[in-house]
Amino acid sequence: MKQITSLIKRLSFLGYCTFEIKSIIKEAIGIDIINDLSVSQEIAVIQQLEMYEQLGLNYLQTYSK
User: Do residues 37 and 29 make contact, with C-beta atoms less than 8 angstroms apart?
Assistant: First the structure.
């Protein structure tokens, strides 16, 4: 859960809005609530958030030059 919270903060810093982050979570597990997740749900959410973090970082690197 701590890792998910950290990823959400990093995505917010990259410019993702709250509704976008909720949508990413919902895409991963079908709901946008991160309380009481099973281990497999946590892994799915972490993987999805990490993927979007990487996309955000790639975008910044490409367009901030």
Answer: yes
Query: Could you tell me which of 17, 18, 11 has the C-alpha nearest to residue 57?
Result: 11
Q: pLDDT 10s digit of each residue in the chain, 65 long?
A: 899 999 999 999 999 999 999 999 999 999 999 999 999 999 999 999 999 999 999 999 999 86
Buried b / exposed e along 19-32 (16+ C-beta atoms within 10 A): eebbebbeebbeeb
Place of tokens 């790639």: 58
Alpha-helical (H) ranges within 1-65 are 2-14, 18-29, 39-63
Q: What is the spatial distance between Cα 12 and Cα 18, in angstroms, rounded to a whole number?
A: 7
